[in-house]
Amino acid sequence: MNDLRHLPRVIKRSDPTRLEIEWGDGARSSYTAAQLRGLCPCARCVDEFTGVRVHDPASVPAELTQTEVRLVGNYAISVLYSDGHHTGIYTWPFLREHAPAAG
């Protein structure tokens, strides 16, 4: 699944509340920190056995910020949020598939 649609060309943390990705095929995705936190795929947010989300995305405050974004190998990022959460690993395909619709 490593086609150009799932490979970032540029990853930019434009401010503490927004992460922007330009993909290899030229498409762009923009995520707020709150959107990413609501999507978190970690075991604290999604039950490992059932795949059911246990963290309610509606409970994430809109003013949430990201204090750090790190690359995880060549396949993902991890984010440290102002609420202290940091265990999610967001793979490129996951981010592309969950990109907010352009407004």
Question: Could you outline the blueprint of secondary structure elements for this entry?
Answer:
Layout: E1 8-15, E2 18-23, E3 28-32, H1 33-39, E4 66-72, E5 76-81, E6 89-91, H2 92-97
Antiparallel strand pairs: 1-2, 2-3, 4-5, 5-6
- How many distinct beta strands? 6
How many strands, which pairing sense, and closed or not: the largest β-sheet? 3 strands, antiparallel
Which residues sit in consecutive blocks of at least 5 with pLDDT less than 50? none
Query: What is the CATH C-level name?
Result: Alpha Beta
Number of separate domains: 1
Polypeptide structure, described:
The radius of gyration is 13 Å and the shape is globular. The model has no long low-confidence stretch (mean pLDDT 93). It has 103 residues and is mainly beta. It has a three-stranded antiparallel β-sheet with strand order 1-2-3. A three-stranded antiparallel β-sheet has the order 4-5-6. A hairpin with a 7-residue loop joins strand 5 and strand 6. It has a single domain, classed as NE0471 N-terminal domain-like (2-Layer Sandwich), CATH 3.30.2020. Helices cover 13% and strands 34% of the residues.
Summarize the structure.
With about 100 residues, the protein is mostly beta strands. It has helices at about 35-40, 90-95, and strands at about 10-15, 20-25, 30, 65-70, 75-80, 90.
Overview features:
single chain; 103 residues; mainly beta; NE0471 N-terminal domain-like; 3-stranded antiparallel β-sheet; 2 helices; globular
